[in-house]
From TrEMBL:
<dbReference type="GO" id="GO:0043531">
    <property type="term" value="F:ADP binding"/>
</dbReference>
<protein>
    <recommendedName>
        <fullName>NB-ARC domain-containing protein</fullName>
    </recommendedName>
</protein>
<dbReference type="InterPro" id="IPR036388">
    <property type="entry name" value="WH-like_DNA-bd_sf"/>
</dbReference>
<keyword id="KW-0611">Plant defense</keyword>
<dbReference type="GO" id="GO:0098542">
    <property type="term" value="P:defense response to other organism"/>
</dbReference>
<dbReference type="InterPro" id="IPR044974">
    <property type="entry name" value="Disease_R_plants"/>
</dbReference>
<dbReference type="InterPro" id="IPR027417">
    <property type="entry name" value="P-loop_NTPase"/>
</dbReference>
<dbReference type="InterPro" id="IPR042197">
    <property type="entry name" value="Apaf_helical"/>
</dbReference>
Amino acid sequence: GDETLNSHPDIPNLAKQVAERCGGLPLALITIGRAMACKTTLGEWKYAIEMLKRCTLPKMENEVFPLLKFSYDNLPDATMKSCLLYCCLHPEDYCIPKKRLVEYWFCEGLLNQFDRISDAQMQGDYIVNSLLMLVYWKEVVK
């Protein structure tokens, strides 16, 4: 938000460059915007621009994939990445109750640092909410 844009005088210009690299695609703008929301150094913004420059491919579906990959690569830890990848095993229109999804993750060993499902449920809820904030799912979970 404003805190990120105001963290350095050059960041607003770099943010415009990042937005231009998204080619006007709403999903790309939202996904990259959320991935960059906490980035406050020039190095992070310049790196993002370089990565996005390298990823430009001719077709729309090939442009969206690199943007989603960038956002995936910026997830904070391997557990969150594994949980997201697990969800990709389901069809696009498949709806999973949040509690059941977290139970699946627990049974698959993705939340294996916990011995009790109740503890894993708290971490799972956090992961689901974090991924929802990143617009990976809109209606995947209830």
